[in-house]
Amino acid sequence: MLKKNEHINANLGADVEGSSAGLMRTLLVRGGPQALVMVAILAIAFAVMNWLITNKNEPSKHPSFKSVYTVESVVASKGTWQPQMIVYGEVLVSRSVDLRSLVAGEVVSINPTLKVGGRIEKGAPLIEIDRFTYEGELSEAKANRQETQARISEYKARISMGVSQIKSLGDQLDIAQSDHKRIAALRENGTATAKQLEERSLVVSQRSQALEQSELNLVAEEAKLEQQKAILGRLDWKVKQAERYLSDTVLVAPFSGIISANQAEVGRMVGVNDLVVSMYDGDELDVRFTLTDQRFGRIQSDRDGIIGRKVEVIWIVGGKEYRFPATIDRIGAQITSNRGGVEVYATIDGSLSGSPLRPGAFVEVIVPDKAFDAHYKLPETAIYDESTIYVIKDGELIVRDIQIAARDGDAVIIAGDVNEGEEILTTRLSEISEGLKVRTEADTGESQ
């Protein structure tokens, strides 16, 4: 059986070889030149590949060089620098008033411009209260005063008459006394009777009593005159009071400002001290902002101090920027711990008439910081670890220790181990150390 299988396999192999040979003969006969070209190309390609592999050269090794970084730098320049601090605050009213009715009555007219948000000029009438009652009180006070003035004139006339009468009675008394002396002398000589002397004595007594009574009447008249003068003074005050009440029927603006509240209506009955209008001075606005303890202490220690320091207020609204000069004029009454600093108030300078700025606006305030003498100003990118800079010397970096005095936007003001004219690295390098080789862009440009 086995021999039979081997005989079968041998026959199959012979058949296959015969078939392959036959196929090649067929291709050669049919393909002819094309098949020979393909075989030749494959043979040549195989030979070239073997030659390249056999004669391959090893790559040449280049020597390694230390890395040199191209960086940017600035030259250290010592000077006096005053950075600008940017803080935020709120616009406040500097002066405001609640206007209340000074007299009671019915409102008969109001200013047509008396509207919330409207501007009122100083002295402009705001409302008018019915004048009838107060005109009557003024007329009555003037009549009473005139009556008292007439009485004063009457008493003055009486006093004048009393003075004349006293003078006349005094003269009569002198005559009577002279006559009495004459009769008394005659009586001593026996040429006058006792009855005549008694008659002369009676006349002197009568005239003396009349003079004394006139003098008393004059004192009484003078007292009544003083009384009427006192009444006149009181009536003068009544007249002024009535005139004041009459003028108070018109409520006027005490200063030019903006109306913030209005409760006046024609026909409304108002009483004394009723709130009618609230307004504030639109030309005097304050800005309240907070300085940290550190900033406040730094400015306070400056040679110019904090009071009177000029600042700039910036209000941005609707994409438009408004700038206003201002002056710090006071510090908050007390330090509030939850605000984390000290409240400072600045008054906006100049007139604000026509300006849209209003109380409650959120503004930006630029405050000049302390002036730092003999310091350096560098870009913030030059600072490493808040206390280190790198100086470029002979193409290498040298570490220097510094102290940051203040910041000014993207720059810092420093002091420390820095010399005038030294070249300071300003490029940020992720791997930096002393001795690192660098070259500046200026050096690169010169080499080219």
Summarize the structure.
With 448 residues, this protein is α+β, with helices and mostly antiparallel strands. Helices cover 40% and strands 31% of the residues. The protein has six helices and 23 strands.
Describe the 3D structure.
The protein contains six helices and 23 strands. The chain is an alpha+beta fold. It folds into four domains: 52 residues, no CATH class; 88 residues, Beta Barrel (conserved putative lor/sdh protein from methanococcus maripaludis s2 fold); 62 residues, OB fold (Dihydrolipoamide Acetyltransferase, E2P) (Beta Barrel), CATH 2.40.50.100; 116 residues, Helix Hairpins (Orthogonal Bundle). The chain has a seven-stranded antiparallel sheet with strand order 2-22-19-20-21-18-3, with no helix packed on it. It has a six-stranded antiparallel barrel with strand order 4-13-16-15-14-17. Strands 5-12-10-7 form a four-stranded antiparallel sheet, with no helix packed on it. A hairpin with a 2-residue loop joins strand 20 and strand 21. Helix 3 packs antiparallel against helix 4. The longest helix is centred in the middle third of the chain and has 58 residues. It is elongated and about 205 Å long. The relative contact order is 0.16. The N terminus is likely disordered.
